[in-house]
Amino acid sequence: MGSSMSDEGVITQLRYAILDIGKLRPHERTKPELLEKLVEAIRADGFLRRPLLVEDEHFVILDGHHRYEALRLLGCVRIPVYLVHYGDPAIGLTTWDEAVVATVTKAEVVTRGTRGDLFPPKTTRHLLPKENEERWVRLEVLR
Length: 143
Prior knowledge:
Layout: E1 2-5, E2 11-20, H1 32-45, E3 47-48, E4 52-55, E5 61-63, H2 65-73, E6 78-84, E7 92-95, H3 106-115, E8 124-127, E9 137-138, H4 139-142
Parallel strand pairs: 4-6
Antiparallel strand pairs: 1-2, 2-6, 3-9, 4-5, 7-8
């Protein structure tokens, strides 16, 4: 388990786990051209370098939709994640500049994920006090 401290002194718990890929629920669609490049890069590398960020109650993906889809396409049945309590105020939420919506709430993210009513690609942007550390995992371990 790892943690990072925000400027306000709030500690964000990041619990590392390798989960059944079928447990995860995306809340955004992916961009086909970006997905294709990522699949090829991961296949060539033989590793996933950065775990996904996933909320710990409903297993909604917060960050890593393209990595999730890439691993599914590569035949993986397990996936490395950092689980977080989404109610943690240190986890920020905003939208990308190219997003079709100006604002999104955490409740909307969870609802979209649990219902399968996906946002367009690159809508939400989750912010943590500190960047998640890399944890290289071989694809063979995930198949």
